[in-house]
Amino acid sequence: MPLTLDEAQTVIAGAHERAGELAAFVTVAVVDEGGHLQALGRMNGAPPLSARIAETKAASVALFRRDGAVLRTMQETSPGFFAQLGQALPVPILVGAGAVLLRRGETIVGALAVSGGTVPGQDDECAEAALAALAG
After folding, report:
1. b/e per residue, 35-67, with b = 16+ CB within 10 A?
2. SS3 of residue 33 by DSSP
3. Residues 63, 58: Cα–Cα separation, whole Å
4. DSSP alpha helices (H): ranges in the chain?
5. For position 87, what pLDDT does the model report?
6. Could you list the pLDDT tens digit for every one of the 136 residues in the chain?
7. Do the Cβ atoms of 40 and 54 come closer than 8 Å?
8. 3-state class of 52 per DSSP?
9. Hey, which end of the chain has fewer CB within 10 Å, N or C?
10. Which InterPro entries match (predicted)?
11. Considering all CA atoms of the chain, what is the largest pairwise distance in Å, rounded to the nearest integer?
């Protein structure tokens, strides 16, 4: 069963709630398993560029089927490969914090990414809160 719009909005609300606790202003993007935007929530005060960054990070995670931390390690160990991907693919690839897969059991149903945190770890904390909100 695919991720529903209600579930995507729950993900966004969970991340935004944590961001509020951190006094951060973030954007959260939720994409389906193919990397296509399903929902986007930009808090008032979030950087304008954060919407594009969040969507691109989420799509990258979904297309690679790996969490952002794993992609970051892959990029660090194979920078040439990632540089060539940017030229070969019709979509941009962006590796960064706060990007994780969404699963229903063992099935990947999408991904989420957070952008806009100004302190290291804020995007990750908001993404973890989003996962917790989805889990109920």
Report:
1. beebbbbbbeebeeebbebbbbbbbbbbbbebe
2. coil
3. 9
4. 5-21, 50-64, 68-77, 79-88, 122-135
5. 80
6. 899 999 999 999 999 999 999 999 999 999 999 999 999 999 999 999 999 999 999 999 999 999 999 999 999 999 998 888 878 888 889 999 999 999 999 999 999 999 999 999 999 999 999 999 999 8
7. yes
8. helix
9. C
10. GlcG_carb_metab_protein, PduO/GlcC-like, PduO/GlcC-like_sf
11. 41
User: Which tokens hold the place of 29?
Assistant: 């993007």
Tokens of 33: 């398993």
Structure tokens at 107: 């099935």
- Looking up tokens 């089927």 gives 65
Q: Which amino acid is at 36?
A: H
What is the predicted pLDDT for the residue at 84? 87
The residue to which tokens 């194979």 are assigned:
78
In sequence order, the 6+-apart residues with CB closer than 8 A to the CB of 134 are 7, 10, 11, 14, 102
